[in-house]
Amino acid sequence: MNEEIIIAGFGGQGVLSMGKILAYGGMMQQMEVSWMPSYGPEMRGGTANVTVILSDERISSPILNRFDTAIILNQQSMDKFESCVKPGGVLIYDPNGITREPQRKDINIYRVEAASEASKMVTSKTFNMIVLGAYLKIKPVISIENILQGLKDSLPARHHHLIPVNEDAIKRGMEIVTTVETHGYASPS
User: Fold this and answer.
1) For 61-77, what is the mean pLDDT?
2) d(CA 130, CA 150)
């Protein structure tokens, strides 16, 4: 198994945290892991992305040009990374702030209304966990138990009281993800 993921959006959307939690979860599952963040000097409000590789075998390089999965959280990232998804791959996006929907016909496209759903939850900071839940529904490469352990390991102890809220957000993301277009990959049931 080898899963190459790009997560991209604005700084402040939890892009890097989502990648870190996936990476920690992969380590808990005894996988080889690479986590490579990229962000502008302005951080919050600027563009940010992270490449995560999860594999059963040694990872030769963390630098990728094509991805199995792209998680897109803003229009700039859609413009930049939609073309980088491998044919037959997966693109997951939140439509909030997207002015041009994905156009490709050779990939599997899923929408998750994470921004809208996060505004209804206890804290709107669960946005990225809703998106992560959608991803795990479509591609259950890491168990929820290991994701929660990754969340615990990546959060400072003073924030551990938020783990149940984040777990609820992950489950909610699994429930609300919808299929837009599929080509050779089963849609979530």
Assistant:
1) 94
2) 16
Q: Which two tokens stand for residue 131?
A: 């998106």
What residue spans of the chain are helical by DSSP H? 15-28, 75-81, 114-118, 127-138, 144-154, 163-176
> Can you state the angle between helices 163-176 and 127-138, rounded to 10 degrees?
50
pLDDT at 47: 80
Of residues 52, 50, 54, the one with CA closest to residue 38: 50
Radius of gyration of the chain (CA): 15
* Contacts of 171 by beta carbon, 8 Å cutoff, 6+ apart: 133
Q: What is the pLDDT of residues 173-187, one digit of tens each?
A: 999 999 998 876 554
Express each pLDDT in 30-56 by its tens digit. 999 999 998 766 555 668 999 999 999
Domains (ranges, CATH) in the chain? 2-181 (3.40.920.10)
Backbone angles phi, psi at 86, to 5 degrees: -60, 145
